[in-house]
Each structure stands twice: as C-alpha cells, then as structure tokens.
Input
Amino acid sequence: MKINPYFRILSLFLVVAVASCSKSEDPIKPVQEELSLILKSDVGNGDPEVITVNRMVTFTITGSDGEDYTALSKISVNDTEIQGNTYTFAATGSYTVKAIYQSISSNTLNFEVLEPTQRALTIDVPKALRNQTITFGLIDSNGDNTASEATFYVNDAAISGFTFVSASAGGFDVYAEYEVNGEIYTTEKKPFEVFIPKRKVVLEDYTGAWCGYCPAVALAIDTAKTKTPHVSVVAIHESAFSFPDPMEFPQIKEMKAYFGIGGLPQARLNRIQKWMDPYPMNEILSMAGKDNNISIAINSQLTGLNLSVDVKLVSETGLEAGDKLVVYLTESGIIYPQINYFDNVPGHPLQGAGNPIPEFEHNDVLRKSLTNVYGDNIPATPAFQVYQKSFTLTLPSDYVTSNLSMVVMVVNSEDSAKNSQFSKVGENKNYE
Output
C-alpha cells in the first residue's frame, strides 16, 4: 500500500469530518424477527381465488407472533376500507384485498368474481424459463378447473392439452375457448413470457476514504456502469491505523483474510477474480449479459425503518449442493472527503479535484449483510423449482433510505459468484 506524506497532515481534518457522515457499523447481530401479518379467507388459497357473484367472504388476520389481529386491523377491498371482516362481492371483476395494522401491511389476496358462464384463465408461471412447463387453468364460478374441457390458443395457434413449453425466449399470449350449455365462449387474452437469465457480474471494491489510489477504482466502476447494466457493485470500506473510515464494514478484515486481499485498492470480479489496474472493461464485458442458468428475484419493502426482503431463486439446471446465498444492503450518495493521490498527476481525470476531494460521493457502500458474508447454504433444488428465503431487519436511523439498494448473489462451493441481481429498496424486481 502506497502512502503519501500528505496523508498524515490530513488525518486530523478527516477525523473531525467523521461527524459529517453516517456512523460506522455496529457489530453484525442476528436479524431480528419483525411483526408480519398473514391475511386469509374462508374460501381457499388460490391466486386468484375464483368465486361466484354475491359470495360473502370472511377474512382473518394472524400475526407472526401467533396473535389474532383481525379486530385491530383495517381491511381494504380494491383500496377501499370495509367495515368488519366480511365482504360480499356483488359484481363481476377482479379484486385485491389487503389488511393494515398500524403501519404494517399484510399479504394481498386476489379474487376473480364470475357469472356462471364465465371462466377465469390462469397461468401458473407468467414468467418462465426456457424449456419450463407452463400450465394453463380455466376456473369456473364454483372454483373447479375445467382446463381439460377447453381448447387453448398460444399466439392464436391451438395447442394440444393445457401445457406449453418453449426453448426460445419471447413474449406470448394465450386464450381459451370453452362450451357451456352448447354455446361457445372465449376468454380474454393473457400475456406471459419465456426468458433466458442474463449474467450480472459481481464487482466488489475493497476501499477506504483514506486510500489515495482508491478513487481510480471508483472511476472505473462508473465507466463499467455506463458500458453495461449487468453489473452488481459492492464497495467494502476499511479504516486505516490512524484514520477511521465511518463507512467501514465490521467484517472487512475477516473478508480480506478469507479472500487473500492485501493492501488497498483491490477489486474482485465474481468474488475471486482479481480486477487489476488499469481495470480493463473487457474483463467485465466478456461476462456481463451472457446467457446464464440462474435467475434471481428480489422484493423488498420498507415500513418506517423496518425492512423486509424476499429473495427467490430458480435455475434451469437446478441449484447444487454447496451453492450459497449472499444478501447485502448497500447505500449510495454518501458525501465524505476522499484522499486523492492523483490531484497533481497531469492528464488524470482527478487532477485538480483536491487532496482530499472534499465532497466525494461514495456509492454502493456495504452497510449490512443479511446472510453470512460468505453466504448461507442453499439446499439442492431441482430444475425450475423456486427456492425462497425471507429476511427482516431494523435499519439505523442515519441511513438515507431512498439511497439503499439490495445486492443478491448465488456463489458456488468455491465462493465464485454464479449470478447476481440488484434492486432499489422498496422495489419488486422480477426474474430477468
């Protein structure tokens, strides 16, 4: 690690400046279970649940603590609050029902209300992997599946039976024809998609606000982001001996030892591949956006400072024994002085920016790991079967919640990232 003599002169300035940035992490603690609500109805668990006109439905709300919150909660049908916990669906159409207790929202129930001659068309996998079997349903007003009695059309071509498989990616639509009392009826068309997962390269930047050569990696990361959207970035900060970095991640020293990382700066691709000065873009672009066999979906919700995250994984070939799940929380837009050894380097992009750069913007800063930093074990999971895991976390009050993001990766038994995904906190990011 190279040290500029000017560094020690600046130490006092930056120690004082610590107060201007978010405080450093507390030691990692087990994720605490926050209260969640489970909304149920007395007619079943279908999604949607199909019922006939004028059916009265009774709702119950149970907390994750086992208590009954029905009387304490507000229930809304299509965003309109109802009285009590029963509702009569007096007109045909689609309905969503949810409950709220204080600021905590429940899951959402979906209902399709039909006349006796109507049918509800269902698609079990609206976004499917290539070669994944998609099953269509045709539910009558009694809740019975009549798919075997109907003819289904995909992109206006009749198919045999009520399943569909495609080896090619693309958008499709489906509708069904069925007979009631000798008369032919046709459902509305519904869209669905077949996709091939794309690889998102994990780029981890081991850095520090005291590290004068580290801004070169930050510039290279900015360039990579302009070249491809298929990169998941994590900046892992460390303090120096006499120079605290308020963004320090508590386990960085353990991580450096585990991954064999010496002095800073150091950057890694997919956790284990070194990305060295001059940080060539071709090493990222040769992998980013290429076909992959694992897809990751992230759904995160923030209620006050209570964060809940649902992660889903699905693979064309299955998840293997030894695979691990890593879930990180990052924060961007943190303004804090950054030592800059390029201030007097002719022609460098950071020439004249100052040393330190007084209002340097630190992005993708690793704040919390919701899993073990090296990953939680994933059980062997067959092809096309979804593996799901949920997390809850109470955030420190000094995090800027609008700047928070999730980074999720699947790594193999040798700690190499097989694929990754990122999303803003509060976003429901589907498979892609």
Notes: Residues 1-33 have pLDDT under 50 and may be disordered. The longest helix spans residues 215-227.
